[in-house]
Design a protein that fits this description.
Blueprint lengths: L2 H12 L4 E2 H8 L3 H17 L5 E6 L2 E6 L4 H9 L8 H13 L2 E2 H8 L4 H9 L3 E6 L7 E5 L1 H6 L25 H17 L1
Antiparallel strand pairs: 1-3, 2-3, 4-6, 5-6
Helix pairs in contact: 1-3, 5-7, 5-9
């Protein structure tokens, strides 16, 4: 695997939060000037390839991948089209985790699910079921996600206290030990109750 591929992989996996120059250097073991040179190579590669949809963004010392600005109408359409489609299991899973553990960051959601959740969070945000509520006071200052009033309406809840309780034996002490199925099953129980009402 090339040095460029390693940096690109880290940029990809860091998602919308991005990754700092210092973290890129620490994880790869490359010196910062070498990382900066590779980042410039990536930026040039993306800019020169008309078939590449990516662009490298830099805010201070944090870098992240995004789609090129001229693809904005297509991306907007992508997030608007699913509004008429029922929530998928993946979306329900992310929504259930946010509902039971809010506020929490995308990384915390990823840890529970074992897969990246940025796309699901974007879709849920567009649908108005989750929103950002400040940033965590931690390196990178990641966004924290919470449910909205529209979420309560969607599931027929008066408040979050109306969520089906998770049994004590299902609740681990450590966030990383949570299984996303715990939350999803509880939320699906609520959907069944709502249909029965």
């Amino acid at each position: 695997m090339t040095n460029l591929a390693q940096i690109e992989a880290l940029l990809f996996i860091s998602g919308d939060q991005g990754i700092s120059l210092g973290d890129l250097s620490r994880v790869t073991g490359f010196m910062k000037p070498a990382v900066l040179e590779i980042l410039q190579q990536l930026a040039d590669k993306y800019a020169q390839d008309p078939d590449c949809a990516l662009v490298l963004l830099n805010a201070g010392q944090t870098y992240r991948l995004a789609t090129k600005p001229d693809l904005a109408p297509l991306m907007k359409h992508y997030f608007e089209v699913p509004l008429t489609v029922p929530l998928t299991n993946a979306l329900l899973e992310v929504l259930a985790i946010v509902a039971y553990k809010q506020p929490l960051t995308r990384i915390e959601i990823d840890d529970i699910r074992g897969v990246q959740s940025s796309g699901s969070l974007q879709k849920l945000t567009v649908r108005g079921l989750v929103k950002t509520a400040g940033r965590l006071d931690a390196p990178g200052r990641p966004f924290q996600y919470v449910t909205t009033d529209k979420f309560l309406d969607y599931f027929g809840l008066q408040s979050l206290a109306d969520l089906p309780p998770l049994s004590k034996e299902e609740l681990p002490d450590n966030l990383a030990d949570y299984d996303s199925d715990i939350f999803l099953q509880a939320l699906k129980r609520r959907q069944k109750q709502q249909k029965g009402d």
